[in-house]
Amino acid sequence: MADNSWDKCVEEAVNVLESRQVLRSLRPICMSSQKDEGTMRSRGNQGDEYEVFDGMRQWDRTSVEVSVSIPTFHKWLHDEPSNGEEDFSGDALSEGRKERFKKLLLFSGNDYLGLSSHPTIANAAASAVQEYGMGPKGSALICGYTTYHRLLESSLAELKKKEDCLVCPTGFAANMAAMVAIGSVASLLAASGKPLMNEKVAIFSDALNHASIIDGIRLAERQGNVDVFVYRHCDMYHLNSLLSSCKMKRKVVVTDSLFSMDGDFAPMEELSELRKKHGFLLVIDDAHGTFVCGENGGGVAEQFNCEADVDLCVGTLSKAAGCHGGFIACSKKWKQLIQSRGRSFIFSTAIPVPMAAAAYAAVVVARKEGWRRKAIWERVKEFEALSGVQISSPIISLVVGNQEKALQGSRYLLKSGFHVMAIRPPTVPPNSCRLRVTLSATHTTEDVKKLITALSSCLDFRNTSHILSSLSPKL
């Protein structure tokens, strides 16, 4: 860190937990026979036992080709409320029943690399479930943490160039745990047990941060541990002003790295410079950047060459990894603190063993099949060239204004065979409703061309805003 005060704070906080005998430990349960342990070690070193491919295969298309029943299709067209009730029996897509379904090309998912349909990842999950079932069921601190979870954590720490990593049940839980644990530093180190104003943690949060960050901050604030400052979206002048006027010693800046609704990047270089100036703890939520950005898939910090300036990197395994779960890549001391004070981690059941096995396979595949990252960024360039809309990532928010315009556009695309959702309040502010398009490595150039043609028939690209950069704070 530019200022090692946070290193000292977290070490002192961990020492307090240890002195009170409430420092929690993770003790992995070994699920393997002696033979399998050797296999796991070899996979952990090189991942040589996982089959990878040098280009798109037929199965990749299942990650972007979906079907909905005709009744669901008609309800969707008329925007009729639904609780998901459908009467399915047997194989819904068997021969003779396919005419009852509408095939759609998916342009709204977060499976950026198409790994959800990768046979190597599916086989890793299947092998684990056949041998161990779902594994021991319990929280990670009780009996849910296994050698598979530890192997996954080690691979993610290496990917993020961090000392250690903590796997969480979801990305939402990871952000919640991180924010609450950061706030706990104030109460652990407070002279009276309840932090005074100058003993609290000052958290500076981007106005468009994800709901999981916001909810984590709210909980930490409710506990009386933090004071919150919201800066205008990606506005480094505003952030610098807030930091400069804040007299509190413990400062944290938290931001999405790649914003899920606008598709723009946090200004990582400027954040790094401000970190050097103010000595704050920098936390990023790299949910949409992990495996997608950077030469090795290390994420947005790798892409902008500032990995060393990120203190805590939160991520998810449910997007580009095509699996499920979340994680926090950090130092060993931070991991000890979070696993002892992060409520959403402590009181949640650990992800099942087959999912941990699948996620580790996804890390290996994502690293080795670099053509997937190349393909998705080629689709980004094609969309920009064909539409004339300036974009910077696979997330494309086409802001159309009011709710009815967004719904009309979504319905037209649905009729045309495209799954593109209308994003409405409360997800986004009023009058900033949009069509949110996401690209995947398993989309083809022809897919993008067809989508652009359909979009051109329901909106005017020249009068469509892509990024809204001046919205009101959410907190």
Describe this structure in words.
The chain is of the alpha/beta class. Helices cover 42% and strands 14% of the residues. It has 17 helices and 13 strands. It has helices at 5-19, 34-45, 70-77, 119-132, 140-144, 147-160, 171-189, 211-222, 236-245, 268-278, 300-303, 332-341, 343-346, 353-368, 371-387, 403-415, 445-458, and strands spanning 65-69, 101-106, 164-168, 201-206, 226-231, 250-256, 281-285, 312-316, 326-330, 395-401, 418-419, 421-423, 433-438. It has a 7-stranded mixed sheet with strand order 3-9-8-7-6-4-5, sandwiched between helices. Helix 1 (5-19) crosses helix 12 (332-341) and helix 7 crosses helix 12. The chain starts with a helix and ends in a 17-residue tail after the last helix.
